[in-house]
């Protein structure tokens, strides 16, 4: 299933409403050009003072299967189960220091914006992409010699859409369930904060 638009209360751009986090992946190669387009989208994300603190370590199954396998092994077992057909893993890093060597308090926020650009670009290209927090960040640092100043925030897996019926039953059910979010009233307050709600 590739088309699962969000049931929004108010109309929003179809690219945003249509983006979701699938787990059903097809075992079909993604071109290097498609991967580069994802990174180009991230390159143009906004950041405080235009510092651009995002960095990415990209693992393409077709280009470097050994490195891909090492990165795949760092996913938690649950994520490994449904990522068997993933073609690309993108480790999203935040550079925690600015050019002066001082702490950049916006690093994670800005890197998150760049990660969202990857997810939206993947959706625009007709690809499936899913951001995950379930990975061994320390193991990633050790396995790929990441400098201390970089924090691994997430890993995004990318593939072509697959058949949800090929997933384990519990995951297939989640894949096909109606999409849901907290209400606007739950997430936004106007004019100030109130604890009386």
Reported CATH architecture: 3-Layer(aba) Sandwich
pLDDT averaged over residues: 96
Number of domains: 1
Order of helices and strands: HEHEHHEHEHEHH
Helix count equals 8
The largest sheet, given as strand count, sense and whether it forms a barrel, is: 5 strands, antiparallel
Low-confidence stretches: none
Percent helix among the residues? Answer: 25-40%
**CATH superfamily membership, which one?**
NADH Oxidase
Helix and strand content put the structural class at alpha+beta
Total beta strand runs: 5
Characterize the overall form. globular
User: Span between N and C termini?
Assistant: 38 Å
CATH topology: NADH Oxidase
* Radius of gyration, CA atoms, in whole angstroms: 18 Å
Residue share in β-strands: 15-25%
Give a summary of the structure in a few sentences:
By secondary structure, this protein is of the alpha+beta class. Helix content is 35%, strand content 18%.
Structural overview:
It holds the Pfam family Nitroreductase. The chain is α+β, with helices and mostly antiparallel strands. It has a single domain (21-176), classed as NADH Oxidase, CATH 3.40.109. Helices cover 35% and strands 18% of the residues. Helix 2 (32-43) packs across helix 5.
Blueprint of the fold:
Blueprint: H1 14-18, E1 25-26, H2 32-43, E2 54-60, H3 65-72, H4 77-82, E3 88-95, H5 107-124, E4 127-132, H6 137-143, E5 150-161, H7 169-176, H8 184-187
Antiparallel strand pairs: 1-5, 2-3, 3-5, 4-5
Structure characteristics:
globular, single chain, 5 strands, 197 residues, NADH Oxidase, alpha+beta, 5-stranded antiparallel β-sheet
């Amino acid at each position: 299933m590739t088309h699962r638009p969000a049931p929004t209360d108010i109309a929003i751009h179809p690219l945003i409403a249509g983006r979701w986090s699938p787990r059903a992946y097809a075992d079909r190669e993604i071109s290097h050009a498609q991967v580069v387009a994802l990174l180009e989208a991230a390159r143009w994300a906004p950041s405080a003072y235009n510092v651009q603190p995002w960095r990415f370590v990209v693992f393409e199954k077709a280009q470097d299967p050994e490195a891909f396998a090492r990165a795949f092994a760092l996913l938690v077992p649950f994520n490994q189960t449904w990522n068997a057909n993933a073609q690309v893993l993108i480790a999203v890093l935040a550079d925690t220091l600015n050019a002066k060597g001082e702490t950049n308090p916006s690093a994670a926020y800005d890197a998150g914006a760049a990660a969202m650009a990857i997810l939206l670009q993947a959706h625009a290209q007709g690809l499936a992409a899913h951001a995950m927090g379930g990975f061994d960040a320390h193991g990633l640092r050790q396995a790929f010699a990441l400098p201390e100043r970089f924090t691994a925030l997430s890993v995004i897996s990318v593939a072509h859409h697959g058949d949800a019926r090929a997933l384990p039953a519990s995951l297939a059910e989640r894949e096909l369930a109606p999409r849901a979010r907290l209400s606007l009233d739950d997430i936004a307050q106007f004019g100030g904060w109130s604890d009386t709600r």
